Amino acid sequence: MSKTIPYVLLFCLFGTLLLGFQRTSPIWYDDTGHWRVVKHFAETGQLCYPLDGQGENCDPESMFITLGPAVQVPASIWMKIFGTSMATARAFILPFSLLLLGIFLALARELTGKKKALWAGLLIAGNIQLLTYGSQFLGEVPMLFWLFLGLWFQVRWLKGGEGQANHFLGALVGFLTALACKESILMPLGAGMLLFMVTSLFRRDWAKAVGVAFQGILLGLAWVALIYSRVLEGKDFWDFWELRSGYGKEFFALEFTESLRFLLFKPLIWLGMAALLLKMQVRRDPRDWFLGLVFLAQLIFFLLSRGYDRFGFQLIFIPAIYLSEFVVFAVDWIQKKKNMRLLWQVGGIIVFLVVFTQQSFPLLAQRLLDPASVNAGEKCLGEELNRLGILDVFTYDEQIVTFLPSGANYRLEPMVHVNADLCKPLELRLGEYLVAGEYARTEFPNCVNWPQLEQVGSCGEGAQRYEIFGIKGN
Question: What is d(CA 292, CA 298) in angstroms, rounded to the nearest whole number?
């Protein structure tokens, strides 16, 4: 029983941190967008993107709908049972975060043993990105749970022994369900599978090459089926694909600045990557090679992308498994230092917290001590609109939706920001005002005829600054 206590404490720590971040993390653009889609789905049974507060104009073909059915359907059932508030939606993600930690630990134990797996769990449990995205209504964490469930089955299949057929099928189910959560996983997972298939052919391991090729083909077919399911009753497939291809600007930005900056401040990733490469070279186990090549594909696609945190934090998991071996070595070395052992232990804890958990603990403490600072700009905007008596707004920044005054109505831009060049010129209705935030300033400025507008109010600072515009002379 005593051997399980550290794991129980790890889950308690992680769960407590998740609850804290769930209550204090700012409500932001994508968080709001996914919530609104599933909320409408739960209330009406119609899967579409509401373009106004009344839900009368709802686009079933919207490119804003990026959650897959493996998240949409259970989340809508959850919201039917427990309510459709943002807090309820975020609560839906918390069990997946705990399940993700559980299957990650199972995978680490399969590869390194119990002691090192515990340290691998500690390396990710306090990570600021995991705590942030693991407590918001996004599809990444459910996708990662299913992905790592598939990887756990996959390494057991690659190991050989009894139950190979079940492990192979389990991996396939995990990968397919991950794809049904977020289609973006297809690119790195498919590329990793292709690389592994090629290396298996060089090693003349025909069974593994054929097996992984079969998995990859089924993943590709499943993705095509998901795409066609979105357009069976909608627009022409190629028109749909042309709009969808705008997301290529995010996945293939080829700018490198943001992605390299992210990696620079993530020693867990590059130290773990070095440990992974060493293990691949020394042990030459197909399990390490499969995980290593999937990670390599993830890393390449991240470097090619705009470097968003939502893509980058997915890189912490596999390196953490292999870095844990060196952490255990360091801990054992400190334990053997009889002179100044306490100093070494305190120093080690400080280094661990600073390097691997980053600002998780101070940030959570700051938000708990100063809750008014969370979404301060949006809260101020709601008060300003109420003071001005404005109840009809148009905005490109949908994160303001939950902060509008009671009884206010809103309209949103139907075009996603990656296709902002295709937006129609803004035409405000009688009595309607434009609320312009960060997205209006950076993504959609060419969609607004600014000289025709006059500013009537403003609130917030920096990225949380909002300006209120009305038509001149009205």
Answer: 10
How far, in Å, are 4, 43, 58, 154 from residue 406 at the CA level? 50, 20, 21, 51
Cβ–Cβ < 8 Å for 449, 425: yes
Render 169-228 in DSSP notation, one character per residue. Answer: HHHHHHHHHHHHH-GGGHHHHHHHHHHHHHHHHHTT-HHHHHHHHHHHHHHHHHHHHHHH
CA within 13 Å, CB half, 254: 3
Burial degree of 282 (CB within 10 A; 0-12, 13-18, 19+):
exposed
Structure confidence at residue 116 (pLDDT):
92
Q: Residue 420's pLDDT is what?
A: 82
Measured from the Cβ of residue 327, the count of other Cβ atoms closer than 10 Å reads: 22
Decide which of 27 and 247 is more confident: 27
pLDDT, residue 195, reads 95
Residue 47 CB neighbours (<10 A): 19
Burial (0-12, 13-18, 19+ Cβ within 10 Å), 253: middle
DSSP string, 150-171: HHHHHHHHHH-STTHHHHHHHH
b/e per residue 341-371 (b: at least 16 CB within 10 A): eeebeeeeeeebeeebbbebeebbeebeeee
Residue 52 is given by DSSP the state: B
Q: What are phi and psi of 466, to 5 degrees?
A: -125, 135
- The dihedrals phi and psi of 34, each to the nearest 5 degrees, come to -65, -40
State mean pLDDT over 166-177. Answer: 96
Residue 444: CB atoms within 10 A of its CB come to: 20
* Residue 343 reports pLDDT greater than 80: no
- Give how far Cα 236 sits from Cα of 65, 126, 228, 419, Å: 17, 46, 10, 18
